[in-house]
Amino acid sequence: xxxxxxxxxxxxxxxxxxxxxxxxxxxxxxxxxxxxxxxxxxxxxxxxxxxxxxxxxxxxxxxxxxxxxxxxxxxxxxxxxxxxxxxxxxxxxxxxxxxxxxxxxxxxxxxxxxxxxxxxxxxxxxxxxxxxxxxxxxxxxxxxxxxxxxxxxxxxxxxxxxxxxxxxxxxxxxxxxxxxxxxxxxxxxxxxxxxxxxxxxxxxxxxxx
Length: 209
What we know:
Blueprint: H1 5-13, E1 20-24, H2 30-35, E2 41-46, H3 49-61, E3 67-71, E4 86-90, H4 95-104, E5 110-116, H5 134-143, E6 146-159, H6 163-169, H7 174-180, H8 182-191, E7 196-208
Parallel strand pairs: 1-2, 1-4, 2-3, 4-5
Antiparallel strand pairs: 5-7, 6-7
């Protein structure tokens, strides 16, 4: 998934130029590296060592001096050591991450996230264990001391005319879906006449109370 223009606009509206940002679950640093030229300092954290190494390589190639990456378990590590003014998370969202952000941020500071929505890949008949609906994400935010400001669903539905086009729409997903059983459910959906594939995410911005 590319970075959502709506999500990036919400970040920019926060007035991020003088902020220290913590990007949680940064992967290879797609969001972290977007933030780096626009903020005072940004730290990307992820437990995937290979992703962190690639993120460091990319940052070096871009000659960025205000970005650092650390290999940590983002659901166990406390975030306060990085003294963030803003916490971001892109497709790496859990109650544990929200809880830790709540402890690290001061009142008035912001948490901005893109979460998997429960309608993501709904044609496979299986909801991701990482998925949220609007009510669940709002509840998690409020429990951990955040006042939600934006909770929006971004939904993209690809429509096609044949089974072959449906298979092409899921290119790159087959291996992963075979492992978790989704592939066979998706094939059944296509054979029964289904002709859509849904991508859906939650755009979230919340303020520490």
